[in-house]
Design goal:
Organism: Terribacillus saccharophilus
Order of helices and strands: HHHHHHHEEHEHEHEH
CATH architecture of the largest domain: Orthogonal Bundle
Distance between the termini: 102 Å
InterPro entries: Bact_StressResp_Reg, STAS_dom, STAS_dom_sf
Keywords: Phosphoprotein
CATH class of the largest domain: Mainly Alpha
Protein name: STAS domain-containing protein
Pfam families: STAS
Structural class: alpha/beta
Strand order of the largest sheet: 1-2-3-4-5
């Protein structure tokens, strides 16, 4: 049995270039089209394919170094997955590409295996060895796609977070942060970090935190706002809260929340007016 597996493994390695070329030629038309659009050198793809074919052959007669050969499968899958994501290939197309190796290997060796009259159990053993290793490759490719997607989501989420806490400079030393939507613990932390960072960068004296776009202010949200104001105060920035609607104010009072230490003004316009900023007088001509 071992001799037969070694024969098949060595034969696969000896014909690795032929098998690699066949994998390319037998590609599904859709996948073939995707690869042609990318204008990838066929020689590069063939060499990359031949590497996997050689590893497939090696696993059939690997005894003491099976784990090392398995690591070679993982390494190939990792590189294939990373390359596919960089080239914007779909996961479906990439996995289909890998599945092509199995069918090509069987097609090439079917006739010879029949001539040598290998036992059915030998063919079953070959399948039991090769198939799990190709699954390892597919799993690793899928993992690389998952990691890639997580990075994209993380970047998009970071960009969205930046947009969710816009710091709008109004005048020298004065800026406004308009808050729209819900405030949870994570967003409150983001507001605090952004306010402190931008407050220092813009050298702010006053910061208006407008919450007219916040639909609900409960105990947790109110406490988060208090912490933000206190942190800014320590940094030398005076904070004014605007836009607390009457119904929300009533709710806050009923919850026993104390905003006496915080300056609150009904709306942004009034806050700017109180700070000494108002509409420019354009009636006078220079």
């Amino acid at each position: 049995m071992k001799d037969e597996l070694r024969y098949i493994g060595e034969k696969i390695q000896k014909n690795k270039d032929v098998i690699a070329e066949s994998v390319l030629h037998n590609l599904d038309s859709t996948l073939n089209h995707e690869l042609r659009i990318l204008s990838l050198p066929e020689k590069h793809l063939s060499e990359f394919n031949a590497e996997l074919v050689s590893i497939i052959g090696a696993i059939l007669f690997a005894e003491e170094n099976k784990e090392e050969v398995k690591q070679n499968f993982l390494s190939w899958g990792e590189r294939a997955g990373k390359s596919a994501t960089e080239m914007n290939l779909s996961l479906t197309a990439t996995l289909q590409y890998v599945s092509g190796f199995r069918s090509v290997i069987w097609d090439i060796f079917t006739e010879e295996l029949e001539e040598r009259h290998f036992a059915a159990i030998t063919m079953l053993d070959v399948s039991k060895i090769i198939d799990p290793m190709l699954e390892v490759v597919s799993f690793e490719i899928g993992r690389q796609f998952e990691n890639h997607n997580k990075k994209i989501v993380s970047i998009a989420y970071s960009a969205l977070e930046e947009l969710s806490v816009p710091v709008v400079p109004i005048y020298e030393g004065l800026a406004v942060i308009p808050i729209v939507g819900e405030i949870d613990t994570h967003r409150a932390k983001l507001i605090m970090e952004t306010a402190l960072t931008q407050g220092n960068t813009l050298e702010l004296d006053h910061l208006v935190l407008d919450v007219s776009g916040v639909l609900m202010i409960d105990t947790m949200v109110a406490n988060q706002i208090v912490q933000i104001v206190q942190s800014l105060r320590v940094s030398g920035i005076k904070t004014i809260i605007t836009g607390i609607r009457p119904e929300i104010a009533q709710t806050m009072v009923s919850l026993g929340l104390d905003f006496k230490s915080i300056t609150t003004i009904s709306n942004l316009k009034s806050a700017l007016h109180q700070l000494g900023y108002g509409k420019l007088d354009t009636s006078k001509k220079s």
